[in-house]
Amino acid sequence: MFTKLFFFSGTPTPPPSPTLKDPWRKIAWGDKAEDLQYVKDYEPGNDDIKHLRILLYGPVGAGKSSFIKSVSNVLRGRMTTPALTSATTSDKSFTTRYETHRIKKEGRGQSKTYYPFIFNDIMGLEKGGGVRAEDIILALKGHVKEGYKFNAASPLSDGDQGYNPRPSPDDKVHVLVCVFSANAAEITDSVLKKMAEIRELASDLGIPQMAIGTYIDSACPETEKDLKNVYKSQNLKKKVKDFSAAVGIPVNYIFPVKNYSDEIHINDDVDSLILSALRQMIDFGDDFTDYVSTLHYNMVIGW
């Protein structure tokens, strides 16, 4: 009787790499000048629109206010504080009022000039609370006045003090941006239902939609080591695809970003990702302003 002996030589097969050999999206690292100049030179293509309105929405703690602050940092070339932000991630919304955030152009003196695009940060979507889908829908149509305090128990309605009965083309939202945390747990069914309602009406209105994924450094160790790994990260690629499948926003309309958080100086890699997303927002919104102005004109003349 013979006993077969098996010998294994060599080293065990290594686990698959967390990063891809080639990035799944190209970005011009180290050369943000073109995108920065593009944003700084932007003027609305429609003379009836004074400013492009970008509405940010999404789950609580996704980093909506932090993104606005980060955009200001990029454009002004230093740390700024245009929007109050929470220092910690919470399950309760930090933003409670409908506020418009304008970004001042860099320069000193008495005269203040602002970029011709503005951000509206809205109360977060919470499980069993938060901003109501009806209020976001009214905001899309321009019916929510500046400073209106959201009420999770009761939606805004015609006749309320915060209701704008006759919105102008400038009051309407020109691009809708969903902000989600790449480091958060799965989005609850109740929040996904709200997002579906909002997206459906925005689609009916023709409003362009996109998304940004924040906290990419916390979600991926390889990206935390080097932000340039963002589009090589297998983990982040999967998160983007999963979010696209859950929410319905195409993958090429989803932009991973890192908000400024612990930095005290401007970082070119952080800027490159933010500018890439911001440029897309401007392009989408500017394309839509022609439609908004035409629709408003037709309503005025009774078409």
Q: Tell me how many strands there are.
A: 8
Q: H/E order of the elements? A: HEHEEEEHEHEHHHEH
**Major sheet, described briefly?**
6 strands, mixed
Task: Please state how the strands of the largest beta sheet are arranged side by side.
Answer: 2-3-1-6-7-8
> Helix fraction?
25-40%
Bulk shape: globular
State the helix count. Answer: 8
Low-pLDDT runs = 84-93, 297-303
* Amino-to-carboxy terminus distance: 97 Å
Rg from Cα: 22 Å
Give the integer mean of the pLDDT values: 86
Structural class: alpha/beta
Strand content: 5-15%
Describe the model:
This protein has 303 residues and is an alpha/beta fold. The protein has helices at 33-41, 64-76, 133-140, 189-205, 216-219, 221-225, 234-247, 268-301, and strands spanning 52-57, 99-104, 114-121, 125-126, 129-130, 175-181, 209-214, 254-256. It has a six-stranded mixed beta sheet with strand order 2-3-1-6-7-8, with helices on both faces. A two-stranded antiparallel ribbon has the order 4-5. A hairpin with a 2-residue loop joins strand 4 and strand 5 (129-130). Helix 1 (33-41) runs parallel beside helix 8 and helix 2 (64-76) crosses helix 8. The chain is globular and about 75 Å long.
Give the gist of this structure.
The protein is of the alpha/beta class and 303 residues long. It has helices spanning 33-41, 64-76, 133-140, 189-205, 216-219, 221-225, 234-247, 268-301, and strands at residues 52-57, 99-104, 114-121, 125-126, 129-130, 175-181, 209-214, 254-256.
